Amino acid sequence: MCGIVGYIGDEEAVPVLLKGLKKLEYRGYDSAGIAVLGKSGLLVRKSQGPLKSLEKLIGDETARGALKGTMGIGHTRWATHGEPSDINSHPHTDVSGKIAVVHNGIIENHAKLKAWLVAHGVSFRSETDTEVAAHLIDFHYNGDLLQAVQEALKRLEGSYALGIISESDPDRIIAVRKESPLVIGAGKGENLIASDVPALLEYTRDVYYLEDEEIAVLYRDQVEFYSREGQKLSKEISHVDWDAGAAEKGGYEHFMLKEIHEQPKALTDTLRARIKTYGAKTINLEEIGFDASWAEANRVVIAACGTAWHAAMIGKYIFEHFARIPTDAEIASEYRYRNPIYHPRDIFIIISQSGETADTLAAMRMAKKSGARIIAITNVVGSTLAREADLVMYTWAGPEIAVASTKAFTTQLMCLSLIALQFGLLRKTTTEAALSGYIDALEQLSDQARKILDGKENIQRFASLQFNKAKVFFMGRLFDYAVSLESALKLKEISYTHSEAFAAGELKHGPIALVDTSTLVVAICTQCALFDKMDSNIKEVKARGAATVVITYDGVDYFDKTADEIFRIPRTLDSLTPILSVIPCQLYAYYCAVQRGLDPDKPRNLAKSVTVE
Ligand code: F6R
Asked: Are 285 and 416 within one domain?
């Protein structure tokens, strides 16, 4: 996830910016850059790779005193638009190189704005959405930077935290936020901006939290605040009294818990830019290069490993449901050693959070060799998968640092739903009329996920009672079976509990022999048509002495008499429910690991990215 810092004061800005950026490294990034305003004007230096590359780049200049200046902005970039490269790194400047901008978030209407600016004679250097902001501010510049920013904001859609400096306005930094965090540090004779508090703590613990659509103007000795319309605001200062280590995790004890909580935002970010909101709401996948020719496929094959394979399984059901197209979900590490049969016009969807999983890449390359067309779903811009696929759809989840995958999974499901609906529309198995209802349901998921997270204490309490169970089995049917697989994986990988998942109808074909009084059975029951079948399964395991917990919808009382415990989730479409029903299971795995005294972020024997076989 991108990081922003900015400094205005009496100290040399470069070391302050570099120190601030270092404090934001934990967020994950692929490139870094700074802009400093000194006697010789605005100097911008940026480099792909770790901060060390940037430090190396500016080493000589810094030693010679060629990058002197007491005001500047800096950025670490996590690529969203355009691959990681020197040119795509921030800060971005206007054509004259006098205005520099750093940006976190996504400018959703950047393509439209870019076309408009190009028509007005502006030439672009990078592939980023951010560059639009620099040119737009310049376009409106009439001698007053603040006014130019206010005018530019009227045209920007999406989410942004912006830090802006200009050679023509050398005594102030302008900072703006909308749906992307930005904090102002109030020092003595110096002021700072940062996307996250740790970058400020060496200089001050007095901060102002910018609210949506507020603008801050930082001078050396004061900070002014304005509404988007230009009305002056007075804001309360807050004092930070927690330590930097905790702040890096946003106040959460572990990255995993933080990432579980980031799901509402990740879902919104992944969805928003793919929905056309003018006129009747519809899905727009033009951005990924999707056109009608893709829907001429006879078959879809979805391949992935681990958690991403569980998303693939759910994807199979989603594609069959919305697009009525034969769909297979393949474990990539198995697939690569098969002698599979390919069909003309096969489409492969390859899912990988990292985009670097060796088995997944091998499966992708085999499919490509057969002539199949490849759509990648990945979280990492510029990853090998993204580079080698024909089309790429990014999960805009931000970096996933905890080894156990959480927000990548739910955003992968969001991407699969969008592609399946688009297929459905083109194949006429989903109607325009039905689509708007589906889009409404997709848009509600973020708030529904937040509601589940608000009730996490209930799951924490349950985990504190059950964390020592010798065996935990998850069971369900169809969508709920796939979520059971994912839930069992989560629990085993971070809490080392023996956990398995069963298709509930398969119980009596063998697995029920394992059930005894030491077993907890989690029954995921979110498909009304299958409630009676699931109820029978729960009774079967109860009769063998198992403790039982059911995950079902709000307002469902079907299992009240059978289950020992019920976790409820908000109601949505069956095909979208996995995005919600997995959340209590992620939380349960997390709290069990913590109760067992384990570090959920670093489970034994596991690596975040499996780049070898
Ligand atoms: C489980 C987990 C792994 C990954 C798998 C694939 O929590 O993280 O099972 O899902 O190694 O990784 P990616 O998605 O990077 O290809």
From this structure: yes
